[in-house]
Amino acid sequence: MGRRPTIIDVARLAGVSKSTAARALSDSPDVNDATREKVRKAAIASGYERNHLAVGMRSGRSGLFGLVIPDITNPFWAEVARGAQDIVGENGASLLVFSSDWDHDREASHLRALRQARVEGAIVNPVSDNAEDFGRFGVPFSLIGSSAERFPDTPSIGSDIRQAVRLGLDHLVARGHAAPALILGPKSRLARARFLRSVHEHCLERDIDPAVLLVEDGDYTFEGGHAAMQRLMARQRNGHLTVFCANDLMALGAMLAVREAGRECPRDVSILGFDGVPAGAFSWPGLTTIEKPARELGRRAAQALFDEIAGRPQDGRTYLPCRLIERGSLADLTVHTPLRVAGAGRS
Amino acid sequence: MGRRPTIIDVARLAGVSKSTAARALSDSPDVNDATREKVRKAAIASGYERNHLAVGMRSGRSGLFGLVIPDITNPFWAEVARGAQDIVGENGASLLVFSSDWDHDREASHLRALRQARVEGAIVNPVSDNAEDFGRFGVPFSLIGSSAERFPDTPSIGSDIRQAVRLGLDHLVARGHAAPALILGPKSRLARARFLRSVHEHCLERDIDPAVLLVEDGDYTFEGGHAAMQRLMARQRNGHLTVFCANDLMALGAMLAVREAGRECPRDVSILGFDGVPAGAFSWPGLTTIEKPARELGRRAAQALFDEIAGRPQDGRTYLPCRLIERGSLADLTVHTPLRVAGAGRS
DNA sequence: TTAACTTCCGGTAACGTTCCCAATAGATGC
DNA sequence: GCATCTATTGGGAACGTTACCGGAAGTTAA
């Protein structure tokens, strides 16, 4: 099969110049209606389709946008990707999707690919706070997730961690739980610090000494949560154990560890997750968790990017509120309090 | 900030012509080593980065590939996307990702976007068997998932449904189960027919009359499986109920329905899934399922596409074997068989 | 010394599109 | 009737890159 028809072929077929054909096809008012119709017919007849490479070349607008997330396989990020995809699509553009695997080099390489593809903008969840990479990025971008503070002048969307943590702790208090143990992400990740800080703040507000909190590190994976929970159970063998996990995957891993240890959730151990991944609804018991508005995050990040590019006024940093989803992984300790609870909830 | 440096800027800075600069940067042998080094330095100093739009325009190779799947949010398809992403990335190209939501119009629109972006090739899971759309697609593509038969001359990758069903039924027989009830996808989807056909074949091989099988339709969603299971339990109130679900999401929904009905899995109801989604490992009991090699599917589809474009010989249709993952959702009926089993397993 | 050959480099064209400018024809105003 | 204006069109340039062609040196062989 031969080469794709160009606008010159269309022009020839319609018996006009390529300028006129281009005008007709781009809805310019400076073209006679009869001519336009003629050109349209020729375009359809020849199977012409605009070459976006050439358009981008000429206009500087490639119609391409980029998304760099840690892992498309992670249900949270898949939702984010979907949200971004939808908004980008509504604006007639296409989305290049990359997974960085939380790896600096991969991220850098993806950013380079985006620049070379001349994307009009990018949505990025930065691996960490290497501000230089983005200072020199050279492409409009919006940030998603954590690590927004470093870039006061670029739009950034995230979940409202403080509000989410408050929601979680309030709920725990209402259910009669003491200060929960924490399973956090790795120290290298920004989100960890933010989560921990919020927990501390809220503990102080409730006159709980943060130093009392048991803390274990995970790596945001199922296995990591599983291992962290095992360590936690080894550290506290008696009484009801309440655990607040920094993400759902670790919470689900923790749940497995509980079962394997012959303990039962929520009877012996209460688990609160954070993310709102679908799998949390399938576990047994269902995972009580704080849901991040993942898809909306993606949509807003994309929208902010379009606003930014169009020069529309920006909100700067935006934090979307999270929602508590109550399923079955939290005991209600207000009913019959076990004897040997570690610490006691006040208020 | 000014405009991006072009190869002309680099050439000027290095004191050579743009031809020489281009040669130097593209590792042509026809350039002096000293000159090459000079140009490289100038490129780095100016922050030059190749404009892929222009390269694509000139060479006809855009460095872009497309992926059209039903929904990036679906964990199976996310895995496929990741596999494709990896292979495409290894080849120095980028991947445009689209979700069709099983909608013809969206699919058509995505395919058009792909063509306009001048992707070098595309990986598609077609919404249905509208052969015309692809006959006229005009871009090399490989198919993934079902509906491959329509295109004997294009590479296509899928899971080996027959082998998978055999695996499942063999396992059920070994565990002492009779012919299972089925929860299938909607009639409009190709995969349904293929799955059902395989079940029938294997039943006949085992002297089981396929007409005996209870069948309910779902829609591949959690809710659909939930509802289908309720109908199934209403139809068969006594004895151990064994259900083979056409995908994991429905299986998980079915599991919930079982619990809600006060029955217990696997004691009263055995459930076998199909897909191998991660969530199946988090449910309780863990979902015994047949795992499709999702990521490998994506990798192979991408590889096939590259092979096809490079003119390397093709296998045509490839079906990758599936793997049974035994977790806890299947009872072992060979131990103490309940009295009123519906039908009896032969062998 | 000259011819042929190698090595390296510069100029130009082309990819497909859109934008700017000029040109044509008809219409309008005086 | 002539200038001016409007509506519509065509021609050419430019976006950034690479491929091709030819030329200028330097090198080797006779």
Automatic annotation (TrEMBL), chains A, B:
InterPro entries named in the record: HTH_LacI (IPR000843), LacI/GalR-like_sensor (IPR046335), Lambda_DNA-bd_dom_sf (IPR010982), Peripla_BP_I (IPR028082)
Any one GO MF annotation of this record: transcription cis-regulatory region binding
Name of protein: Transcriptional regulator
Database matches in SMART domains: HTH_LACI
Annotated keywords: DNA-binding, Transcription, Transcription regulation
Transmembrane domains' residue ranges: none
Pfam hit, one: Peripla_BP_3
Source organism, top-level taxon: Bacteria
Domain HTH lacI-type: 5-59
